[in-house]
Design brief:
20-stranded mixed sheet; single chain
Length: 391
């Protein structure tokens, strides 16, 4: 039996009133919830609450981690949910970190694993300084009280000042970022201006950039680039608990090499092509192959089409010239610097077959007296260089 038109209109009116009351109730509830949230938000944003939270974080860092942490001001962000710290600093006996602005995305705290997960960490204008004297890092009886995992990291405008055992490293205008997924971490770094001083070397300036992947306890570097004046290197490698390994290729201008190693014009020429293998678990943990069309020693003695190899172990440094042309003759030789850290004994064994005697004497500015002949020469030299560590 169908309802009459009047009954249908009455039913629609009742449905409309019910829908209107339901809508008003929902909107009222949402408005009330919004007012409560706004009230809580204003409460959390109040200076008193922000100062108290900042003090709690500073106290927790001192108690749990043993570090001196200072927060200039603290505020909250909704998207992403987290906090914003300004004029943030960390100071220990050996390390100081100052940051103009640090935004922390809150994740989760796994109580059973004592792990704090931060969804993101973004910092701007970060200055990192190492003290001249090494300090002591916090020590724990068994393990650190809290483990912190950062899923996404972004550092912009980084500057770094470091000094350790006579070596200084300064970094300006750097950027580092990574993103953590389920089983791996992928990231990149770009350091526009790096300066290294130490080890008896002159200052080395370069830019460094590359990407990396961390997975299953192994950190792999891909397409690492180091470029500076007269210096261009490419490298890839891997770091794990078992050790470190890397493969490096590139080119360095010989005048730049002469400046870096402080040989004061002893070496001149065009460039050296390099290829190196680095393996911390090998006997010779550095093996470097070099070749150049020409390198001139003391502006008088040219070695053309040179090809050789260098090796560095924990006990000694060795070198070998496999092939070179010296005044028209075939030159080859071996060099060894033994007992690193002791008296630095040097051992050189060099041989040259078919050297042009007349050209050699003219290079020495000695009258040839009409001599012109091919000559075979061999030399064995040994000496101790106690001043070697001073460069």
């Amino acid at each position: 039996m169908e309802a009459s038109p009047a009954e249908s209109r009455a039913l629609r009116r009742r449905r409309f009133r019910y829908l209107r009351r339901t809508t008003i109730a929902l909107l009222s509830g949402a408005a009330l919830a919004l007012l409560i949230l706004l009230g809580l938000w204003n409460l959390f944003q109040s200076p008193a609450v922000c100062r108290r939270v900042a003090k709690q974080i500073e106290g927790g860092a001192k108690t749990l981690l043993g570090i001196d942490l200072r927060i200039g001001s603290l505020s909250w962000s909704l998207l992403p949910p987290g906090m914003i710290l300004e004029d943030f600093s960390i100071h220990t006996q050996s390390l100081s970190v100052d940051c103009r602005r640090l935004q922390v995305g809150l994740g989760a705290f796994r109580v059973s694993r004592r792990t704090l997960v931060l969804s993101s960490l973004a910092a701007e204008k970060v200055n990192i300084s190492l003290s001249q004297t090494a300090g002591t890092a916090p020590s724990y009886a068994k393990s650190p009280p809290i483990r912190v995992i950062v899923e996404k990291l972004s550092l912009r405008k980084i500057s770094f000042e470091g000094a350790s055992r006579g070596a200084d490293l300064d970094i300006e205008d750097g950027e580092v970022a990574w993103f953590r997924e389920a089983a791996s971490t992928t990231g990149y770094f770009q350091l526009a201006n790096c300066r290294f001083r130490g080890g008896g070397l002159n200052e080395i300036r370069s830019g460094v950039a590359g990407s990396f992947v961390e997975e299953a306890g192994r950190l792999r570097f891909r397409s690492l680039k180091l470029e500076g004046e007269g210096l261009k290197l490419r490298a890839s490698g891997e770091v794990s608990r078992e050790g470190a390994a890397a493969h490096l290729t590139g080119r360095v201008d010989i005048p730049q090499l002469d400046r870096i190693i402080r040989t004061r014009g002893l070496l001149t020429g065009a460039h050296l092509d390099l290829e190196a293998e680095i393996n911390s678990s090998a006997k010779d943990f550095v093996r470097l192959k070099v070749k150049t069309p020409e390198i001139v020693v003391s502006q008088r003695f040219p070695l053309k089409f040179l090809r050789g190899e260098l090796g560095l172990s924990r006990r000694d440094l060795w070198g070998r010239v496999d092939e070179a042309s010296f005044f028209g003759g075939h030159f080859h030789g071996n060099y060894r610097l033994g007992a690193l850290g002791d008296s630095f004994p040097h051992d050189v064994r060099a041989h040259c077959e078919g050297m042009d005697l007349g050209a050699f004497l003219r290079a020495l500015k000695v009258p040839t007296g009409g001599l012109s002949a091919g000559m075979n020469v061999g030399a064995n030299l040994q000496w101790k260089g106690r001043n070697f560590p001073r460069g």
